[in-house]
Amino acid sequence: MKNKLKMGTPLMGLAIGLALVAAAVLVMLIGFWKTLLLLLLFAVGYFIGTVENKQEFIRETANKIIPAKETKVIDLKSEIAREQDEAAVRTNQEKDGE
Q1: Nearest of 14, 40, 17 to residue 32 by alpha carbon
Q2: How are the residues of the chain apportioned to helix, strand and coil, as percentages rounded to the nearest 5?
């Protein structure tokens, strides 16, 4: 049955259709916010039941959403001096090459 339940198959279309009908019935019977809360709690339960290493999963997901910020302090004067020195060395090498 697992092979039949793939995107694009009639069985998957039926499963998604039934899920949407169930969601529509819930919205009509208990309201939008209660249905949203019910679906959120289902998602949390599914997460708890299926993810083996929860801390690692949360850490990786958080790093994808908010990447670690590495700050590097740059001393502008020394950086300009270094670039000028490199430019002078390149100029001397070009003159020696001619």
Answers
A1: 40
A2: 75, 0, 25
CA distance 15 to 22: 11
Report the C-alpha gap between 64 and 68 in whole angstroms: 9
3-state secondary structure of 69: coil
- Compute CA distances 94 → 70, 77, 83, 87, 90, whole Å: 37, 26, 16, 11, 6
Could you read off the pLDDT of 34-89 as tens digits, one per residue? Answer: 999 999 999 888 888 888 888 898 888 888 888 777 767 788 888 899 999 999 88
Alpha-carbon distance of 62 to 58, in angstroms, equals 6
Q: Residue type for 52, please?
A: E
Residue 60's H or E segment, with its range, is helix 54-65
Tell me what pLDDT residue 98 has.
Answer: 62
Query: H or E segment at 55?
Result: helix 54-65
